[in-house]
Write a structure and sequence with these properties.
The chain is elongated and about 50 Å long. The termini are far apart. The protein has one domain. It has 132 residues and is mainly beta. A 5-stranded antiparallel β-sheet has the order 1-2-9-6-7. Strands 5-4-10-11 form a 4-stranded antiparallel β-sheet. A two-stranded antiparallel sheet has the order 3-8.
């Protein structure tokens, strides 16, 4: 595998009417089903975001973190970004700088390491961005 990619995509922090959003990359060399993705945590300026306020957006669909486990047929392609949309209206305003942090686990269904267990890679990243 080549060099790892940065999980949080630069310059993607966006203000939305229902909160804010930023893009993340798949930090693996091949596409994976969404059922392999587990959002472990998201933070804004060091404050944890409750999982029930996170929406994972990809391929024109929106999923809660819990719904990802059920999405075995939908793929996160290596070249595509996913968007983490955070439902916290007013937390982020245009022109403000904020520090984002995300931790995502990827389970590799083609790499079993025991009965019902698969190799997992956890990626943690943080980035400071100005909201647009």
């Amino acid at each position: 595998m080549g060099a790892s990619v940065q999980l949080i995509v630069q310059d993607t922090l966006r203000v939305r009417p229902d909160g804010f959003a930023f893009d993340v990359r798949l930090n693996w060399y091949r596409s994976l089903p969404l059922s392999s993705v587990e959002i472990l945590s998201v933070q804004l300026d060091g404050e944890p975001v409750p999982l029930d306020q996170i929406v994972f957006e990809i391929n024109g669909h929106r999923y809660s973190p819990a719904e990802l486990l059920e999405q075995a047929e939908e793929l996160w392609f290596v070249q595509d970004y996913a968007r983490l949309s955070i439902r916290q209206p007013g937390q982020v305003k245009a022109g403000e700088a904020h520090t984002l942090a995300a931790e995502i686990a990827l389970r590799f269904p083609y790499m079993p390491i025991g009965p019902g267990k698969f190799l997992t890679n956890v990626t943690h990243a943080s980035a400071t961005q100005v909201a647009h």
